[in-house]
Amino acid sequence: MDFNLKELIDQLVKMKGIKREFIIDIVKEALYRAVQKKLGSDADIDIMYDDATGNLEAYYFRVVTDKVEDPLLDISLKDAVKIDPEAQLGDTLGIKMEADELGRIAAQVAKQVILQKIKTLEGDIIYDEFKNRQSEIITGTVRRFEKTGIIVDIGKTEAYLPYSQQIPTDRFKTNDRIKALILEVKKPASGQSCNILLSRISTIFLIKLFELEVPEIAEKIVKIEGVARDPGHRSKISVRSIDHDVDPVGACVGMKGSRIQNVVHELSGEKIDIIPWDEDSVKYICNTLSPVEVSQIVIDDDEHSMDVIVPDDQLSVAIGRGGENVRLASQLTGWSIDIQSESQMQMMLEEAKRRLLFIDGIDESIADSLIKLGYTTLEDLTTVAPEVLAELPDITVEKAESIIEQANMMLEKGMGVITIDDELEKKLDVPTTTLKCINEELSQFLAERGYLTLADIQSEPDTESFAKNAELNIRRARQIRYSLQLHIDELNGKKRDKVGRITPDSFFDFSKLDDDASGEENGKGDKE
Average pLDDT in the 239-244 region? Predict the structure, then answer.
């Protein structure tokens, strides 16, 4: 078989970037497979290539014998002499195979082997080139659209951008230029090209875009401390400067907003908030919620949460559309943030005071002092030492121990099942806004999670389950459950003493009184 492949090999080396010796091995293996397909897998075959001339030759070998047992391996002396007059018994005779002997099927096998091997080598080369380029931005051209994503031409190969990794507001056409992040580079399987996965929704993509647009970030003068992103809608990015003369926010915004506008344009109109980072968590959270004016912040270090109080007219802005603003602020800072209005907080403090007054030994003055010190729930009282409470006016150590004991007793009952009868359950089939501690926003939040009525809240086995299922922090869940217990107690017509407190012996007794007594006591309660 005599082919001049030198020019063809030269072209493959130039076009594919594959080493010459690899291509020669591929061609030789392809011819070997073709000859093997023709003669059989047991045939003794040798392929020789002369790179100087481009000649490719295939030989198969047979042993000269007086009795042919296997035509693939043996040849008679009579036939051997026709090929080589000097052939003798026992000699191994190399026979050259001509091109026209292969046939169409064998030639097709050779072609498939060459294409598959070259594709595998191409995939390995592309993988080696891109495996260390993950998390880099690459620019390409939209080639075609498939069922689950876009094929992007990135030069030497193609990459894949799934629809799930595109910004919801992205709109591309064929031949559009596109920027994306190299999210993953997968090593190709045999005979397959390298799989390069792209993304435009990754937070790293946002960071890399700012590195391209803001020299101070690329030079590490300005450092990005955190990113929270809702792709296509809004992102928050916190920055700080290691150079006191460089304003980190101004550097990111640029002259007349030029830098940030370039990023917004690349992200298909996604809004971006640039926030100055602060090591003080309270200041940091205030910055993330800007321009909302924060009135007060209550910190719970154990729960790693903050209750942020804002003016009533700024509550919707602080929460954002669908809770987007507070959700991004929480992601950015790492704190669980609960936004409340001033009026809502006032109602909760009133409710807290009302709960504290249920405990013997606590009057309105002591309740006010406890609330100012942050003791607003029964659990708060159970965690404080008697000596600490005794520092308050009119409270002795013995009185403090009694208060803590009562709080523990009430908490144990309050954390369990709220037991009611069928008739009382019907009275709880009312909107959750019946409780003063639940406003319209919180009511809607609970409704989206299946809590439409007070009966739905009552059905939870304990406060932890309610907090988990309603996606509330444990502090807020306790407030709601406590308020529900008070409401049920009032429905049951519990007797009050002269200062308006429910007597301890009847506080968690949910047995239903007769209708007349219930109506009478409810009337008294209204007058109070």
Answer: 94
Non-local CB neighbours of 417 within 8 Å, separated by 6+ positions? 461, 462
Instruction: Write out 353-402 in H/E/C secondary structure.
Output: HHHHCCCCCCCHHHHHHHHHCCCCCHHHHHCCCHHHHCCCCCCCHHHHHH
Residue in the block written with tokens 């007058």: 527
**Under a CB-based contact definition with an 8 Å cutoff, are residues 369 and 392 in contact?**
yes
Output the six-digit token pair for 144.
């075609």
Helices 364-372, 342-356: axis angle to 10 degrees equals 130
* 414 — pLDDT class (breaks 50, 70, 90): low
Residue 35's nearest CA partner among 97, 124, 108, 111 is 97
Closest to 318 in 3D by CA, of 306, 304, 301: 306
pLDDT band at 520 (very low <50, low <70, confident <90, very high): very low
Choose among 428, 454, 458: nearest CA to 443: 454
**What is the reported pLDDT for 372?**
80
33 touches 107 (CB < 8 A):
no
Phi, psi (degrees; rounded to nearest 5) at 199: -150, 145
Is the Cβ–Cβ distance between 328 and 230 less than 8 Å? yes
Residues 91-114: tens digit of each pLDDT = 787 777 776 666 666 667 666 777
Residue 502 DSSP one-character state = B
**Distance between CA atoms of residues 143 and 150, nearest Å:** 8
Cα distances from 429 to residues 36, 346, 434, 448, 509, in angstroms, run: 83, 26, 10, 17, 20
Q: Mean pLDDT of all residues in the chain?
A: 80
Asked whether the beta carbons of 378 and 475 are under 8 A apart, the reply is no
- Residues 378, 468, 332: CA angle, nearest 5 degrees: 100
* 325 residue type, one letter: N
Tell me what the mean pLDDT of segment 325-349 comes to.
87
How far is Cα 354 from Cα 44, in angstroms, rounded to an integer?
98
- Residue with structure tokens 């406890």? 370
**Between 63 and 13, the higher pLDDT residue:** 63
pLDDT of 226 above 80:
yes
Q: What is the DSSP letter of 513?
A: P
Within 13 Å, how many C-alpha atoms sit on residue 274's CB side? Answer: 23
Beta bridge partners of 141: 153, 177
Tell me how far apart the terminal alpha carbons of the chain are, to the nearest angstrom: 111
Residue closest to 457 by CA, chosen among 417, 509, 422: 417
pLDDT of 443 strictly over 80: yes
pTM score: 0.64
- Name the least confident of 65-69, 86-90, 95-99, 427-431: 95-99
Contact status, residue 103 vs residue 38, Cβ threshold 8 Å: yes
User: E strand or H helix at 73, and its extent?
Assistant: none
